[in-house]
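quick one before i forget lol
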Amino acid sequence: MSKRKAFVNFVKAENILFLFLVTVAAMAVRLKFFGYVSSDYREFLGGWFRLIRQNGGLAAAGIKFGDYTPAYYYLLGLISYLPFSGLHLIKALSCAGDIVSAYFVFRMVDRKYGEFWGEISYAVVLFLPSVIMNSALWAQCDSIYTAALLACVAFLMEGKSYRAVTAFSIAFALKLQAVFLAPFLLLLLLKRRIKARCLLILPMVYLISILPAALLGRSFWDLLTVYFRQAGEYNRLTMNLPNLFAWFPARAQTSAGQAAVLAAGAVVLFTLVYLCSKRFQMTDEMLISLALFYVMLLPYILPFMHERYWYPADLFSVAFAFYFPEKFYVPVITVLSSTYGYCRFLFGFHFISIKLFSVLMLFNLIWVAIHIIYCIRDGSDWKVARRGWKT
C-alpha cells in the first residue's frame, strides 16, 4: 500500500471516529432530558403509545386516533415492541431523526469542501439547542420529516431528482409542514430542473403510506383527508412562533387568518414569478439558498403556526452558513428565535417580547432574499460563494 493511500485511509478512519464520538456525546446530552414529561406527551403522545401497545403494535394503525398521518404511527408501532417506557422510546425515535438530519447536512457541506467541514457541520446540528429540545425534551418528531427534506435538497445537489422528490414525498407523508419546501420544488419544476413526471411520485408515496392503515380497518377517505382536518384545528394566529402575526391581537378573528393565508399565497406566487423571470444557474449554492428562503418565508407569513415550525429553517440555515461563512448570523438568529419559542411553550418564559424576535427574523428573511438577488445578479461568477473557508 502506498503512503498516500495509507494516509487517506487513516484520515477516513479518523473522521469516522470523530463522527462516532460526536454522536455518543450528543446522545449522552439528550439522555439528561429523557425524564422530562412535556404537556404534549401527557395529553397526546403518551396516550397514543399506550393505545398502540394495547392493540398489537402495528395492528393499531387500523384504529382512528390522534391527528397525525399513519406513517408516524407505523414508526411508533415498530418501537412499541421494545421493552422500554413509551416516553423514552418516543424520544429515542426522534433522536434517531436528529442523527439522520445531521448526516444530510454533513452530506451537503462535505460536497462543497471535501475535507473536515462536513464533520463539523454534523456536530453543530446535533448540538443545536432547538434540535436537542425538540427530540429529547419535548418528544416531538420534527427531526424525522426534516431529515427527509434535507435529503431532498442533498439529492437535488447530486442531480438525483427522482430520489429528491421521493424524499420530499416521504416528508409530506409524515407531516403537512413539508409543504414549506413545496414552492422550492415548484420553482425547480418551472425551471425544468425537475421533470414533470417526477411529481407522480408524491401521490404514489402518500397512497402507499396510508394503504396499510386502510387495510387494517381505517376509513380510506378519512386517511386521504387528514391534512384538511388538521388545517382547521387551530384558530390562534400564532402559537409562540415569532412571525408576522406576533404583532396581531391575541384574539384576532379566524377570518383574518383565512385572509392572511390568501395573502401569503400571493407573496409566494410573486417570488416564483420573479425567480422564473430571471436566468441563473441552479448551483449548489443557489439550491441551498432558495431552500432556506422558502422554509423561512412560509412560517413567517402564514398564520396558525406553532413554535416548532422553523425547525427545518434551523437546519437548513446551518448548511447555508457553511456555504456562505460571512452569513453566520443567519443560523444564530434563526435558532435563537426557535429556541425562544420553545421556551415560551415548555417553561412559560416571557422575559423578552416575542415581537423582538419577529423583527429579527424579518431582517433575517430580508437578508437571505437580498443574498439570492445578488447571487442572481452575479450570475455564474458566484463571487460571494468563492470566499469559502480555507483549511
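fyi DSSP finds 17 helices and two strands in the chain.
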